[in-house]
Amino acid sequence: MCIDPNRRAGARAFTLLEVAIGVTVLAVLAGTMFTIVQGSLQAAGEIQIVQRDNRRIERYVTLLRQYFRTLPTNATMGLKLIERSPVMQEITFHGAPEMFVWGEQPVNREPLTLSLRRYPEAMVTPDTPEFYLGLTRPAFFRPKPGEGLREALMSASVTYPVGPRDLPIVADEKTRYWLPIVPALRSMTWRFYQTEKKRWVEESSPTRPPLVELVLLPYERNTPIRVVFATR
């Protein structure tokens, strides 16, 4: 009988059961690692979205602060309450022709309105935001007559060039055309401070309050952003 001198006593190969168990353990570990990596990538993507939205809101707040600080002496603003639940308002600026300039006629003496707006139903799903901050000014957009244009505007499929981007134009029931400037909001409220009564109000006729409060709640955040602007 020949004996292999290189073979150790008691050495044996893996059985089929042991191989199957090893493959199963490796598969479980691989699946766990894939889930961890996928979750990390998803979290990183969500963080990037939040950071992008924060930068957009910071730019908007900085721009508003500059506009409030440089308002003409004869400029006034009115605050109209549209809905109470949720709170939806329109703040309209009069006598501020250089506020939010854009388009073919950048300087426009028509009143400018900012408002929390609802996205068209065609764009809203249970997992997407319902509101955006919109801007409108009379005659800034004159659509050409065409079949189905009204429906297209209501679904935000018509765009308008603003700098390097094409932003959607959304029509409302009053045939006003809104340009979204801050997307993905949960809520937005304005308040004017009345000096003589020493109180904040949610609605006001055109006036020049010394302080204007803005509270924004982005869609991806649970903590609102509060900013107070001085107008004098």
Question: How would you describe the overall organization of this protein?
Answer:
Helices cover about 25% and strands about 35% of the residues. With about 230 residues, the protein is an alpha+beta fold. It is elongated. Strands 1, 2, 3, 4, 5, 6, 7, 8, 9, 10 and 11 form an eleven-stranded antiparallel β-sheet that branches. The longest helix has about 55 residues. It has one domain. It contains two helices and eleven strands.
What is this structure, in a nutshell?
26% of the residues lie in helices and 35% in strands. By secondary structure, the protein is α+β, with helices and mostly antiparallel strands. The chain has one domain (48-230).
List the helices and strands and how they pair.
Blueprint lengths: L15 H54 L6 E9 L2 E8 L17 E7 L12 E6 L12 H6 L3 E5 L2 E7 L5 E18 L4 E3 L2 E4 L3 E8 L6 E6 L2
Antiparallel strand pairs: 1-2, 1-9, 2-3, 3-4, 4-7, 5-6, 6-7, 7-8, 7-10, 10-11
